[in-house]
Amino acid sequence: AQKVTQAQTEISVVEKEDVTLDCVYETRDTTYYLFWYKQPPSGELVFLIRRNSFDEQNEISGRYSWNFQKSTSSFNFTITASQVVDSAVYFCALSEAVGGGSQGNLIFGKGTKLSVKP
Amino acid sequence: NAGVTQTPKFQVLKTGQSMTLQCAQDMNHEYMSWYRQDPGMGLRLIHYSVGAGITDQGEVPNGYNVSRSTTEDFPLRLLSAAPSQTSVYFCASRRSRGGAYTFGSGTRLTVV
Fold first, then answer.
1. Is A84 helix (H, G, I), strand (E, B) or coil?
2. Is residue B88 within 8 Å of B103, Cβ to Cβ?
């Protein structure tokens, strides 16, 4: 069965600290996609990144970076030099290419609430 | 380019009332889905569609109905509202299986 676990319910840091949000997934598919979404206090869901299971290269986008490790079924997200505007709930999600029975709809973790204090 | 448009943004219903949450996308996406978000639960799939005329149930379909008569529209109907349906509802669309979803801005529904 497919599952996404975000063990950190809430994290609080001080501005300029680095912070890593953990994501562990379970799937039987060999082809799948992993996502991160950001939900700021205004409530909308903002797409951050999509990664397919065959691409284990780490990705960096400005202060954001993602570490995908198939060996540990993890897709962790790091924010470097955090800012107050990074305060949000962050969701990790999984989509299976073949199995799952729901046409690859996103399976979400429960989210990690990040608070960045000035 | 509006993306995914949901209406209304807020709604209060009395127990037993019915209503339709509207969702429209202008990106010609085949795949559309409805999710509900509850505190501490993440987002859970209610119903989804892989094209006009094709719908299926997700994880939490009870009490909801959908139809997809056009590519653009995917309304969600609450048949007889219950307090347990108090939630934030998100509609989303994507071009293909495995693609990134674009989400609407959400509908906050309260059932009293």
1. helix
2. no
**Who contacts A63 (Cβ-Cβ below 8 Å, separation ≥6)?**
A79, A80, A81, A82, A83
Closest in B50, B59, B90 to A45, CB measured: B90
Please indicate whether, in this complex, the C-beta atoms of A110 and B101 are within 8 angstroms of each other: no
* pLDDT, tens digit (0-9, with 9 covering 90-100), for B57-102: 999 999 999 999 999 999 999 999 999 999 999 999 999 888 889 9
Residues 6+ apart with CB under 8 A from A102: B45, B48, B56, B58, B59
Tokens representing residue A82 in the block: 């955090």
Question: At a CB cut-off of 8 Å and minimum separation 6, what does A31 contact?
Answer: A52, A53, A54, A96, A97, A98
Residue from A54, A105, A110, A113 to probe the interface with B (highest B Cβ count within 10 Å)? A105
Contact B45 A102 (CB under 8 A): yes
Chain A residues whose beta carbon lies within 8 Å of the beta carbon of residue B98: 33, 52, 95, 97, 104
